[in-house]
Amino acid sequence: MLVFQKECTLPPFRRGFHLITDRVLKEIPELRQIRAGLLHVFIQHTSASLTLNENADATVRQDFESHFNIMVPERAPYYRHNYEGDDDMPAHIKAALLGSSVTVPITNGQLNVGTWQGIYLCEHRDHAAGRHLVLTAYGL
User: Fold this and answer.
1) Which of 16, 48, 72, 99 is the most exposed place for a label (fewest CB within 10 A)?
2) How far apart are the C-alpha atoms of 127 and 121, rounded to whole Å?
């Protein structure tokens, strides 16, 4: 059994949905040694999230942002947690809906994703700093 774990920091991204698959792969080249296994990507934040989705058409990422902003609006009168601005509580709700991790199969040293799938950083804050990820690859 091979196990590799790395921590990395992504640069700041503007609010929205961003493909980070290539950045993740650059940070953990050891996964090329794994014939069959899993890559687990975890984000150490409560106001950003990760998901796996469309990797070719940028309008999908724009539509995600538009939909989530309607589904989870800012300045809802029932929000009490707004210490860091109008995007504070909505960012936490969006992160809870999407989740803090993705797990992707590894086959013959490569991510075994569908043709049109990529890992997204879902940035829910207007002015976020870099985001910290824990990458764990394991398998045979």
Assistant:
1) 99
2) 15
Quote the mean pLDDT of the chain.
97
Domains of the chain: 2-139 (2.60.120.460)
Confidence of residue 122 (pLDDT cuts 50, 70, 90): very high
Find how far residue 100's CA is from the centre of its chain. Answer: 7
Q: Give the phi and the psi of residue 135 in degrees, each rounded to 5.
A: -110, 125
Cα gap 125→121, rounded to integer Å: 12
**Helices marked H in the chain — which ranges?**
21-27, 58-71, 88-98
pTM exceeding 0.90: yes
Measuring CA to CA, how many Å separate 135 from each of 6, 33, 42, 64? 5, 15, 7, 25
Cβ–Cβ under 8 Å, residues 139 and 106: yes
